[in-house]
Amino acid sequence: MSSGYTKEKKVGEGTYAVVYLGKQVVTGRDIAIKEIKTGTFKDGLDMSAIREMKYLQELKHENVIELVDVFADKDKNLNLILEFLPSDLEMIINDKKIMIIPADIKSWMLMTLRGLHHCHRNGILHRDLKPNNLLISPEGYLKLADFGLARSLGHPNEKLTSNVVTRWYRSPELLFGAQHYSPAIDVWAVGIIFAELMLRTPYLPGKDDSDQLVVTFQALGTPTEEKWPGVSHLPHYNNLTVFPEPSRQELRNRFPAATELALDLMCGMLSLNPNNRLDTKACLLHPYFTESPEPTEPEKLPQKS
Ligand code: ADP
């Protein structure tokens, strides 16, 4: 393959891409080659996506996957050369042999929010955060992957949508079809992932987009004009069943292992009105992170065997 990388073997296939293990010839280090098929872009190769990724490449952060290189090959497929990270948070959550303690959850949340804060501060939204986009290095560092890509990709075919592209991490403003979204969509997804780490099972697993709204509002209450001015004018808003906001006691019952501060932070990230949701800075300054227990050091976090 061109540009100084060898392709060794296929390691995975996602909705839009095939991923290979490879090596950077000059350094001999392992890299992942993510080949995104041109056909998956809405209008051919999306230059703005490439520009954004090139920009991200310069912004190194220990909690964001390193993008080593980006180029279009002769067949016009977009090739992303990434650091090779063999594990992700979804694998860990799903491996029932692994025990997860509150200090581990705090450590993964801290690393996720630090990576996200770095990207938001630089004007980049993720738009598709979920546990399998949070990759884990052999040293235990969590790194956000697939930044800036989600926006440029078209919808995959119907059949794939239901089980491959997950809607469980979508914020209410996205579900309502809001045109102008903000960094708050990513904070919502992190709040849902926080809940999933505590529950060890997906928090709001909607069966389709309209069920996703029902499941979300059953758990967190239906937004009203009073709590979220303008909500009734959003494109997909129509007469909703009105569920009451859960009481603090109901939340405690749903998350029995959570401390009061953990619940406060989760609720701040899961504010239905995006304007009231905490931003990444407020999340990072939240007293949950300074109360006991201290976050587990990355090297001591549980890893997939
Ligand atoms: P999805 O569409 O499920 O997000 P991707 O297209 O991102 O999946 O990747 C498909 C598979 O390739 C992943 O499930 C993972 O096993 C592997 N993979 C992706 N990125 C990397 C990486 N940087 N290092 C190692 N493996 C990776």
From TrEMBL:
Isomerase among keywords: no
Pfam families: Pkinase (PF00069)
Active site residues per record: 128 (proton acceptor)
Entry binding sites for ATP: 11-19, 34
InterPro entries on file: CDK (IPR050108), CDK7 (IPR037770), Kinase-like_dom_sf (IPR011009), Prot_kinase_dom (IPR000719), Protein_kinase_ATP_BS (IPR017441), Ser/Thr_kinase_AS (IPR008271)
One GO biological process term: filamentous growth
GO cellular component: cytoplasm; transcription factor TFIIK complex
Sequence ranges assigned to domain Protein kinase in this UniProt record: 5-289
Example of a GO MF term: ATP binding
Keywords: ATP-binding, Kinase, Nucleotide-binding, Phosphoprotein, Serine/threonine-protein kinase, Transferase
SMART domains: S_TKc (SM00220)
Classification via PROSITE patterns: PROTEIN_KINASE_ATP, PROTEIN_KINASE_DOM, PROTEIN_KINASE_ST
EC number: 2.7.11.23
Family statement: Belongs to the protein kinase superfamily. CMGC Ser/Thr protein kinase family. CDC2/CDKX subfamily.
This protein's name: [RNA-polymerase]-subunit kinase
Organism per entry: Ogataea philodendri
